[in-house]
Design goal:
CATH class of the largest domain: Alpha Beta
Radius of gyration: 25 Å
Largest sheet: 8 strands, mixed
Distance between the termini: 77 Å
CATH superfamily of the largest domain: Cysteine proteinases
CATH architecture of the largest domain: Alpha-Beta Complex
Number of domains: 2
Number of helices: 12
Number of strands: 21
Helix content: 10-25%
Length: about 500
């Protein structure tokens, strides 16, 4: 007989309503911990300006969960709602009953992180601890670990959970961000990349009593306060025309009787006022499809599996393009100990392990320019600069508080969209190395290893990355632009782009 999700939750919560408090929250909020987690890089304005006027992932949501009076809101948001939606999106399942059969367990997350033992489940948990658990251990399904306070986590549940890890996550804005437009656009962009966004928010008294239309209107006297309840929810969509000035669609864990079947519309302005922070989650493309009782046929390779594609462009501060052409690495001067460069080969040999680019023009000292790094699929992107001295400097990410992970169709500018790099008064050659990676790298360690390795840039790259390089025969490099695309499955996880810049 099919497992009925609503019945399962109802039975698990039989003792729940003995408590006086009808609905719990559960977010353990520490602003200091928030600052320790890297945020998404600031993208170019065009990435935010070209977003659709409305976007929704609601069709991939399970029936709204009900945490009752327990402090399990973070666990519901990260596992039952977010992780279930990710699975439904990757497998293309929109039937709610089928999605309910795929649902993941909030108790699996909560029971491993709660501060208190026993049957009360009153301890709050930290959102980043929950996401770290789902990233490192994964999460078991609700069928394996029903929603129940103080339930034991078996080795069988751990084995199942390992199949359903997330790849990574990053904050979209910090608690001290005061620009409402920046916060709103960051979340809209993350949603448009194809997956739900986690929201940590204040819950004033009015939030508990939404009407059936599911539209939240805070009381005029309600303002964010430290002593106010805080919880985590999932943002599933937005509409720029909703409620006149635009609104986000939010899925809460207070059951289908709250709001509109568990969903609510929150005006952009109210959302920006009460939001603490938001998190973009990246799925693990190596996760296994979740089984349903219906006759679905999920692809053996989940959506967006292992793809890499990127492009780097250069422009002067007056927006003039700085074109570059492709050449074999053996023609790159830094590998020839200052020897006169050979004529670039028009088509790189498949046997050549590394491919490089050279600026088609040389530029005078004092030229001010910037570079724009674009990727088509989620990837970790790093950039380093060096010269004939052999010393290597990291330029992307700009600092340790910025994540190197770029989402789908993201573009970042270095040093910024309005800033510029200035060519110094020492004419010669400079070199840039941009790495696109399918997994995170230790950028500082790479920089140190390359700086300490004698020889040219190719030697430095091989010493720092080694077997992680994807062989050039699997990479389609563009001839007249600095860019590439993976043309098939291959060993390795990293694609290097090397560029020689000449100034006189």
């Amino acid at each position: 007989m099919k497992l009925n999700l609503l019945l399962l939750v109802t039975l698990a919560l039989n003792t729940l309503y003995l408590h006086a408090q009808p609905r719990g929250s559960g977010l353990d909020y520490d602003p200091k911990m928030l600052t320790k987690h890297a945020s998404k890089p600031l993208l170019v304005k065009g990435d935010y300006a070209n977003l659709p006027a409305a976007f929704s992932l609601e069709q991939y949501a399970p029936t709204s969960g009900d945490q009752g009076a327990y402090m399990t809101g973070v666990a519901f948001a990260t596992s039952y709602h977010m992780r279930t939606m990710v699975a439904a999106i990757q497998q293309g399942v929109t039937n709610t009953q089928q999605i309910n059969q795929m649902a993941f367990s909030p108790s699996y997350v909560y029971e491993q992180l709660k501060y208190q033992s026993g049957m009360d489940c009153r301890g709050k948990i930290n959102a980043f601890d929950a996401l770290d658990l789902v990233k490192e251990k994964g999460v078991a399904t609700l069928k394996t670990v029903p929603y129940q306070c103080d339930i034991k986590i078996s080795s069988l549940a751990d084995d199942e959970a390992a199949k359903y890890r997330i790849a990574d996550y990053q904050t979209l804005f910090k608690a001290d961000e005061t620009n409402a437009y920046v916060k709103i656009q960051a979340v809209k962009k993350a949603l448009a990349e194809g997956f739900p966004v986690l929201l940590a928010t204040y819950c004033p008294p009015s939030f508990y009593n939404l009407g059936k239309k599911g539209i939240w209107e805070p009381a005029p006297t309600e303002k964010p306060a430290d002593n106010m309840d805080k919880n985590m929810m999932v943002i599933v969509g937005y509409d720029d025309k909703k409620l006149k000035s635009g609104a986000f669609r939010v899925l809460n864990s207070w059951g289908s009787s709250w709001g509109e079947r568990g969903f609510a519309w929150i005006k952009y302005s109210d959302w920006a006022t009460f939001a603490l922070f938001a998190i973009q989650v990246y799925p693990n493309t190596k996760s296994q499809p979740v089984s349903t009782t219906a006759s679905t046929s999920p692809a053996t390779e989940l959506a967006g599996s292992g793809n890499l594609q990127g492009k780097v462009t250069f422009q002067t501060t007056d927006n003039m393009a700085m074109p570059a052409g492709r050449l074999l690495l053996r023609n790159l001067e830094i590998d020839e100990a200052g020897a006169k460069p050979k004529t670039p080969s028009p088509t790189p040999s498949l046997k050549e392990e590394l491919v490089a680019y050279r600026m088609k023009n040389s530029y005078t000292s004092g030229t001010r320019f910037r570079l724009l790094v674009t990727n088509e699929f989620p990837a970790y992107v790093y950039a380093f600069a060096t010269d004939l001295s052999g010393e290597v400097h990291k330029i992307l990410p700009a600092n340790d508080n910025i994540s190197p992970l770029l989402g789908k169709n993201n573009t970042v500018a270095f040093p910024s969209e309005t800033g510029a790099i200035r060519m110094d008064e020492n004419p010669g050659k400079d070199y840039l190395l941009i790495l696109y990676s399918q997994k995170p790298l230790n950028a500082n360690e790479l920089m140190t290893r390359m700086s300490q390795t004698p020889g040219g840039l190719s030697a430095k790259i091989r010493a720092a990355i080694g077997d992680e390089l994807i062989p050039a025969k699997y990479i389609s490099y563009t001839p007249d632009d600095v860019g590439f695309a993976i043309t098939g499955s291959a060993k390795g996880t990293i694609v290097p782009l090397m560029v020689e810049i000449s100034h006189r």
